[in-house]
Amino acid sequence: MSLAEIKNSIRNIPDYPQKGVQFKDITTTMKNPTLFCELIDLMAAHFAVRKIDYVVGIDARGFIFGGALAYKLGCGFVPVRKPGKLPADTIAEEYALEYGTNKLEIHKDALNKGDNVIIVDDLIAVGGTAEAAAKLVKRLGANIESFAFAIELTSLGGRSKLSDLAEVFSIIQF
Ligand code: AMP
């Protein structure tokens, strides 16, 4: 199996969820056990020699990759969720979308000062989602070791929003 096979397995859906967007559908990769495992193994290999306390996964597809990565690294998993989904006390960060705003939340007691974390999502486009997650992690005093994505849409420049904060790592680039 190769990176090209992983890349070829990602389905492109034009004009979803709105006109002009090339939606990268990763369900076609995840349902192939060999490709899904290889993708997670590649991510885990990148972080194998580092001391990671938690993988912070972003709602919702970040849970799939982040959960598998945390298992593989033998560290904990912390969810960052859309509003109203986390049951205990939370802090929130709002971020701008092309039209309007969105919000992400994390449990106040999810991380401690000095914890070393990787922030994981399926895909980075303009980077606002991961940047909001990073602000939440920072507010809890944790250290961002890296951002990790299965897919990076390089022409949208999201990397430049995050690279001052930590390393930005992606498996597949479009
Ligand atoms: P952004 O904040 O622009 O980096 O957007 C990243 C978030 O939106 C991730 O959680 C992605 O799942 C989702 N997303 C944005 N653009 C796409 C796309 N073209 N295909 C699939 N998911 C996308």
> What is the CATH architecture term?
3-Layer(aba) Sandwich
- What is the overall pLDDT average? 97
Protein structure class: alpha/beta
Backbone shape: globular
Describe this entry's structure for a reader:
This protein is an alpha/beta fold. It has a single domain, classed as Rossmann fold. The protein is 32% helix and 33% strand. The chain contains six helices and nine strands; from the N terminus they run αββααβαββββαβαβ. The protein has helices at residues 3-9, 27-30, 33-47, 61-73, 128-139, 158-162, and strands spanning 11-14, 22-25, 54-58, 76-80, 90-96, 101-107, 116-124, 143-152, 167-173. The strands form three sheets. Strands 4-3-7-8-9 form a five-stranded parallel β-sheet, sandwiched between helices. A two-stranded antiparallel sheet has the order 1-2. The chain is globular. The model has no long low-confidence stretch (mean pLDDT 97). Bound molecules: adenosine monophosphate. Residues 21-24, 58, 61, 121-129, 158 line the site of adenosine monophosphate (AMP).
Secondary-structure map:
Layout: H1 3-9, E1 11-14, E2 22-25, H2 27-30, H3 33-47, E3 54-58, H4 61-73, E4 76-80, E5 90-96, E6 101-107, E7 116-124, H5 128-139, E8 143-152, H6 158-162, E9 167-173
Parallel strand pairs: 3-4, 3-7, 7-8, 8-9
Antiparallel strand pairs: 1-2, 5-6
Helix pairs in contact: 1-3, 3-4
This protein binds adenosine monophosphate (AMP).
Adenosine monophosphate binds at residues 21-24, 58, 61, 121-129, 158.
